[in-house]
Amino acid sequence: MELTTALRALFWPAALVAASSCSLARTQVAPPAPAPVAKAEAPQVESLDAVLEVVRAKYDLPALAATILSGKDIVALGAVGFRDRELKTPVKSDDLWHLGSCTKAMTATLAAKLVEQGKLTWKTTIGDAFPELRETLRKEWRDVSIELLLQNRGGVAGDPPRAAWSALWSRTDTPRSARRWFVEQVLAEAPAAAPGTKFIYSNQGFTIAGAMLEALTDTAWEELITKELFVPLGMTSAGFGAPGSTDLVDQPRGHAPGPIAPGPRADNPPAIGPAGTVHCSLADWAKFVGAHMRGEKGEDGLLKATSFRKLHECPEFQSYAMGWMRMPRKWSAGDAFTHSGSNTMWFCTVWFAPAIDQAFLVTTNCASDKAGQACDEVVGELLKLRGLAK
Hints:
Layout: E1 46-47, H1 49-59, E2 63-70, E3 73-84, E4 89-90, E5 96-98, H2 103-116, H3 126-129, H4 139-142, H5 146-150, H6 162-168, H7 175-187, H8 203-217, H9 221-233, E6 239-240, E7 254-255, E8 259-260, H10 273-276, E9 278-281, H11 282-295, H12 305-312, E10 325-326, E11 337-342, E12 347-353, E13 358-364, H13 369-385
Parallel strand pairs: 1-3
Antiparallel strand pairs: 2-3, 2-13, 3-4, 5-9, 6-9, 7-8, 10-11, 11-12, 12-13
């Protein structure tokens, strides 16, 4: 990125004053102007391309991209490889990447925003959100709170009902309508565990939470998260599903293992959006991650510090908060938070450490067995660049 410097314009006042009643005219010299004051300069953005290309080639990935966030500033950025492995279309640093399950932290943050607005509480239950279903709803589900769902402790199964999942692919109604239908199919089955007793990572649980937010606000999740999250954070590139056009390779394409053009089979069904369909640029993803990194210090206006603390709080004997894994590391000087995401055609991972005010984001447009290893290796290299690991 090009470094810019803006200097304050200088203004010199007139120097002469009128003569006194004496016949001798006197000249008054203006005081010296203050020295020019330069505006704070954005830090130099280091290219990560050389580091990334070594890892990309080692693991034979179509493309690989990463960024380092320090405070509010991106201090390093890179993107190497191809949007489409077959056409060899090169990626760019501002390309869009599918975030998969890293969407979950966004849905939880949206819930916190609506809690602050008084639209619900953390104890709002499935029965509260869907009163029209309360009489027919299985009793095990009625008192499951949105807090439990966002902590993956709601008792929701990790795998969706097979018949409902198959049918979801062919639905042509709106994502909100399909989501509500799918949620009713999930809730028609018994919980996989007694709610509140066990951690079960579940896309369905987050889909139920998203449908609850829709019901309580009468607004589609996609519209809600855009208004309450993306717009305030300036995430102008954020959208849903596989990015780009079907006829032009104008964005990276997911690979499984070959490139897949955007369309119905390029992502999971839109109905499970709250669990994992957001895409955006690395710079915009960093805005969201940065809000969480600084949020507990009260340095971000998106939410109150208490709300960020709630989102980062893990239940007893569990390291999963609401869309984040809390995993302290030696280099983090305290808590470190992480999550990975994939829709089986993309993969990404993120780490952030509030105590040292740094975050590391990595993504690739495939989800082979090697994708996770490659992203982890890149994180290790980025830590070395920042002097945080040997």
